[in-house]
């Protein structure tokens, strides 16, 4: 069957309200880290939803107590390529939301609620796309997978588990909000901690001590200069690397020269850089200060206990692959424009799928990243619908329709 015909047959079954209702249900189930059992309820909801639609290849894969990935498979008849939709089940807590986070609201063409953009909108579009394919009665050639993963907003333990189990498909789409831009690259993110030890003394006799806060201030200034140097570098897809001191902490009381002071650093790195070089840059700064101001001890540590244990490495995928070509073609057919491919501003699990599982993967989903984690998180309904249409088109192109 021709792709256009198959797509039409499936999209005839599409109903706007069904998509919006599904997204509303996802939003009503909080899944952030302040919720007991975090993603568990949402994972179960998705499992039951797909089961109700006749999916029988379903699994809750518990990574820790009460925190499962939800995995679904619509098996193909053979002969096509396999495709996986990857989406994270967790959101950030509603830190600064001014709208009710779990009571979805439709207004002026947007659907508002916590996670509407990051990334329950995309989850809804992926799930309904799969459901419509199944309902159509058409049979796919290649396998179609859904991997709803936990913990992406923290350490990506859900996708780390996919890596550990050797999950394998031909292509994957990570549905982070890209405003329907096809993202084939993004920066890596590394968190480092500098520990500076001096010598404690009474606050009335600072000359008897060595104050690590002053050294931390010098390190911070040097990092600021390093950032200026980094800003001059330019990667064609992801732009400039950067470095930022996000936390400085140390000392107990004004009348004490403290013993120790900490700096926490965020480093965004490009596919051209190496992990080692990030540490070497900071080591160089510390070594210079060591010589200029003896009597202090410095330690540079990775904060990989708070980030992905496999490291938040950069993404860099060849844009000339069937996955990207299909997304471009479908986007052009549904929206009238082909914008090619670009880079994603944040970090995504696609980087792990590519490096550790050798699955060519891109980031592609509805919603503006600026609206993620925002006080008025909301997704444009038009954007959401286009995502579903493109996902359906992608499934047909990659998996193929069985003629039998
Ligand atoms: Zn996200």
Structure, described:
This protein folds into two domains: 3-186 and 314-399, Zn peptidases (Aminopeptidase), CATH 3.40.630; 191-302, Alpha-Beta Plaits, CATH 3.30.70.360. Helix content is 36%, strand content 23%. It has helices spanning 3-11, 16-28, 40-52, 116-136, 157-164, 212-232, 275-292, 322-335, 350-357, 381-399; strands spanning 58-64, 67-74, 83-88, 105-107, 110-112, 144-149, 171-174, 182-186, 188-197, 201-202, 242-250, 256-257, 260-269, 297-302, 315-316, 341-344, 361-363, 378-380. It has a six-stranded mixed beta sheet, with helices on both faces. A four-stranded antiparallel beta sheet has the order 11-13-9-14, covered by helices on one side. Helix 1 (3-11) crosses helix 10 and helix 6 crosses helix 7 (275-292). The radius of gyration is 24 Å and the shape is elongated. The chain starts with a helix and ends in a 5-residue tail after the last helix. The model has no long low-confidence stretch (mean pLDDT 97). The protein binds zinc ion. Residues 88, 118-119, 152, 176 line the site of zinc ion (ZN).
Layout: helices, strands, pairs:
Layout: H1 3-11, H2 16-28, H3 40-52, E1 58-64, E2 67-74, E3 83-88, E4 105-107, E5 110-112, H4 116-136, E6 144-149, H5 157-164, E7 171-174, E8 182-186, E9 188-197, E10 201-202, H6 212-232, E11 242-250, E12 256-257, E13 260-269, H7 275-292, E14 297-302, E15 315-316, H8 322-335, E16 341-344, H9 350-357, E17 361-363, E18 378-380, H10 381-399
Parallel strand pairs: 3-6, 3-7, 7-17, 8-16
Antiparallel strand pairs: 1-2, 2-6, 4-5, 5-18, 8-15, 9-13, 9-14, 10-12, 11-13
Helix pairs in contact: 1-10, 2-4, 4-10, 5-9, 6-7, 8-10
Bound molecules: zinc ion.
Zinc ion is lined by residues 88, 118-119, 152, 176.
